[in-house]
Amino acid sequence: MNAYGTDQYRQTQVTTVDKGRLIVLLYEGAIKFLHEAAQAQRDGDIAGKSSGINRALDIIGELSQSLNMQDGGDIAFNLKRIYQFWTDHLLKAKIVRDSPAMDDVISMMSSLIEAWQTVCNDAEAAQAAAARPQPITTATTAARTI
């Protein structure tokens, strides 16, 4: 029953989050799966390693497919290249049992998460400032009493 509640919470979190936060969640998921894959490799669990890498690759594929190449300009183009690099690196890690390749991808993803979090936080701050009620001045108060 506890796992069901956790799954429902995650599903609600994903379906109600804005796009920037969703990207952060996807990166976090991919990193989690890569850490699991690295641990599986250390434990000699080839199937576990393969599963973790495959799940991370699925997330990277979704991120890549969701790019708007027409309107995204250089940012979308560069992200597409990064996602392809990650895919190639992880396939290499899967085939040649190369743990440093997974570590490289984790490091790069961690850097990009920080960038996305900054963008999300800046956007939220701007939204909050726009929604903030204007301070009441004496002129406003006088106008309301007339």
Describe the structure.
- Helices cover 85% and strands 0% of the residues.
- The protein has 146 residues and is mainly alpha-helical.
- The chain has one domain: Up-down Bundle (Four Helix Bundle (Hemerythrin (Met), subunit A)).
- Helix 2 (19-42) runs antiparallel to helix 3 and helix 4 runs antiparallel to helix 5 (99-131).
- The termini are far apart.
How would you concisely characterize the structure shown here?
This protein is mainly α and 146 residues long. It has helices spanning 2-16, 19-42, 46-65, 73-96, 99-131, 138-145.
Write the layout of secondary structure elements.
Layout: H1 2-16, H2 19-42, H3 46-65, H4 73-96, H5 99-131, H6 138-145
Which key terms come to mind for this protein?
85% helix; Four Helix Bundle (Hemerythrin (Met), subunit A); disordered C terminus; single chain; 146 residues; globular; mainly alpha
* Helix-strand sequence: HHHHHH
Q: Report the radius of gyration as a whole number of Å.
A: 21 Å
Main structural class: mainly alpha
**So, CATH architecture?**
Up-down Bundle
Please identify the top-level CATH class.
Mainly Alpha
